[in-house]
Amino acid sequence: MAYDLITMGRIGVDLYPLQTGVPLPQVTSFGKFLGGSASNVAVAAARLGRRAAVITRTGDDPFGTYLHEALKGFGVDDRWVTPVPGLPTPVTFCEVFPPDDFPLYFYRRPKAPDLEIDAHELDLDAIRDARVFWVTGTGLSEEPSRTATLAALAHRAKAGTTVFDLDWRPMFWTDPEAARPFYTEALRHTTVAVGNLDEVEVATGVREPHAAARALLDAGVELAVVKQGPKGVLAVNSAGESAEVPPLPVNVLNGLGAGDAFGGTLVHGLLAGWDLEKTMRHANAAGAIVASRLECSSAMPTPDEIEAAVTAGAVQ
């Protein structure tokens, strides 16, 4: 049976302070959670009842074992999560200063195992058969992950829905100009592009939301989703339809992971055949719910929680 969703990209262990508003040197305790955007999107979709799997790699170490256990616990298939001997499983620390300051500290050296995904090891038939295939910009930042990502996209050849999460992390690249040619190539093979203002600017050179959406459509996608922060989200498709939806009011505790909840719910809405406005409203609500919680993967909302937030017009 084909998967509803296969994601490909980053995984790691998130270590979140259990004290908010405290600088990292003074934090005394942390919570341990599954992290990494591609993995969290799969978790979010699984929480909504979708059959999801992730293609990624970990270290051959106890943290790698933990991530396998966590994926299984969330109902995400881990068959394509393989170890890389000699490289440690990445960990990521953050600081939590609500409502809008959440510095991230990535420990991905000497190299993150998820950048060691090899094209020759991919199950290309499964990738082609999945109803939705999701890749990220980070996967383009180094070899062999870059070649594997582009090979998977080329083999899929826009079968079904193919999502490119622009996922710009400047610390993984030398400069935006080095990234753009690979983003351009990935966009040729995708049907949906998703990104915030910084990310669409890296991909297209354009920052104004409507112009950036048009640039993404011109690059070959069928649906451009531009996240505008406090202004909400803009979605425009190649048929000329558009929806601009404001964010839900929320008391933000930790904004990290909100985009992954948005992504998993976007996938759910696309699979369900919802119209643009309904899909964006539900995706916004999912992101707001996670932003109101400390953790990320384990905070992904259920369908009932999202529906309640949409109905109330706010996260309670």
Structural class: alpha/beta
- The CATH topology is UDP-N-acetylmuramoyl-L-alanine:D-glutamate ligase
- How many domains, as an integer? 1
Q: Strand count, sense and closure of the main sheet? A: 10 strands, mixed
Total count of helical runs of at least 4 residues: 10
Mean pLDDT: 96
The count of DSSP E runs of length 2 or more, i.e. the number of strands, is: 14
- The stretches of 5 or more residues where confidence is low (pLDDT under 50) are none
What Rg do the Cα atoms give?
18 Å
Summed up, what is this model?
With 316 residues, the chain is of the alpha/beta class.
Which characteristics define this entry?
ten-stranded mixed beta sheet, four-stranded mixed beta sheet, globular, 316 residues, UDP-N-acetylmuramoyl-L-alanine:D-glutamate ligase, 36% helix
Give an overview in words.
By secondary structure, the chain is of the alpha/beta class. The chain has one domain (5-312): UDP-N-acetylmuramoyl-L-alanine:D-glutamate ligase. Helix content is 36%, strand content 21%. The relative contact order is 0.14. The mean pLDDT is 96.
